[in-house]
Amino acid sequence: MNALQRRKYIMGRLEEGGAPVSATVLAGELSVSRQIIVGDVALLRAGGAHITATPRGYVLERPPEGRRFTIACRHTPEEMARELEIMVDNGCAVLDVAVDHPVYGQLTGGLHLKSRYDVQQFVSRCAKVRPLSVLTEGIHLHTLACPDEAAWQRVKTALAQAGFLLEEQKD
Fold it and tell me: Euclidean distance between the first and final Cα of the chain, in Å?
């Protein structure tokens, strides 16, 4: 299989949808190294493919169902699982996390968390590395896809009750 056929295969796998596909899995299926897959994905992105790397693998960007909202939060790394569980338990998908870095500007990481299982998988991977929010003393943004306004309001209320919602300071 040549490089063009390999990239076509990768796009086909991602178009199937479902769960994210890791570079390691794709490398095994194509009998190449993981680094070859990483390079292929980079070339596909450069060619206009909307591929996102999540903690569990690559996904093809699809418009999320429902409405998108951005929320500002603050918490410790130990509270991260609880924050994410609040969001998915109230029916919203956590699409990404973003922080403002003093040198690089906004850094965004794709999450694509839709269930407690997804949250548990993400948190277990974070046990080996520190989350982006440690760069900003816990302050970060999440983009959420919520099925409706009611789900969005439930998330905001629950995050505020848990003390995670970053709100304006009253002078």
Answer: 65
